[in-house]
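Each lists chain and fold; for instance:
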Amino acid sequence: MLSVAEAQARILADLIPTGPELVPVADSWGRIAAADIAARLDNPPADVSAMDGYAVRAGDCAPGGALSLVGESPAGHPFPGRVGPGETVRIYTGSIVPDGADAILIQENAQEDGGIVTVAVPPGAGQHIRRRGQDFAVDQIVVPAGRALTARDIGLAAAANHAWVTVRRRPVVAILSTGDEIALPGDPIAPGGIANSNTPMLAALVRACGGVPVMLPSARDTVSDIARLAHGIETADLLLTAGGASVGRYDLVQQGLERIGLTVDFWKIAMRPGKPLMHGRIGRVPVLGLPGNPVAALVCGLIFALPAIRALAGHAERSLPEDVAILGGDLPENDRRADYLRATLSRAPDGSLLATAFSRQDSAMLHTLARSQALILRPPHAPPARAGEPCRVVRLDTLAI
């Protein structure tokens, strides 16, 4: 059995990011920048006022001194002249500072009467002025390639004068669930059957990773049906299967996909839940075969499919971030497989993060998974751990998954 780290490395080794496409900046949330986004202008484009008040020469200002008001500089309508000795110009936040002025006398520190402005508290030179390019300068990289664009990044790109941005095409991920026992949610369920939770769950995971899910019809437990439904995936960037990847009599995914050209890289990993994980290729399309138990399918999806989809999307951050917590209960010695224990999170009296594993870790208990806020990571052959000891966790509560 491969280790989790080796399996991740082999899955990611030969993935090629999707190509670039142009999208309106307002529609680019969550998309991955395919190239650095550089500023097309200075921001601010000139020295501007940071406050409402009066543009002055700091050297002309003294407590009780008087200045002659010679004009105003509203936003978008710069004062065309120059501020000379003993003069001032009314100015507003964001307005261009007129030539000759080197400070802003804020309106709270001045009194205007009949064209004369009396100084109460004089400003220092340069005070309340935002200098040209103070935020960013022309040609400066404001959003790096590989970043998933947030609302903040979109505002920044727009301020840098980009109406369109170059992003990676969303990876297309085909999803194939297998099993005679599964039925579409809402359809009649035959004796011994279950509702298909894997396909919609994995589709949601794909969307959360920035991909486009294509949900194929469920395949029966026959080699020919698996081959038939998987045929024509050439337009996909990744094929995810759920179920049928183990060694049982009806675990036929590998045989079915081999009929249409599957070459297998590996199919077992030292992990719980999720030992039967298959990886290979059909032509140029990578294939990731997830376990059929829904908890194992999603946990393996988080650990292996999420980094793969992010890699295809050109995302700079691929793996899930880990955190350190304190165990809320004792844990037994681990065997040769890495454990990903579903757990709740809370705060200890001292404010530290407390992770408490559920007492039952069955790989078919979706209710437990839905209530989980973290996965406690236990390496192979880990010794017994006691409550209060540190542990590594993957935070689920901070993911939109």
About this structure: The chain has four domains: 4-17+170-313, 35-43+135-168, 48-130, 322-399. The two ends are 28 Å apart (CA to CA). The mean pLDDT is 93.
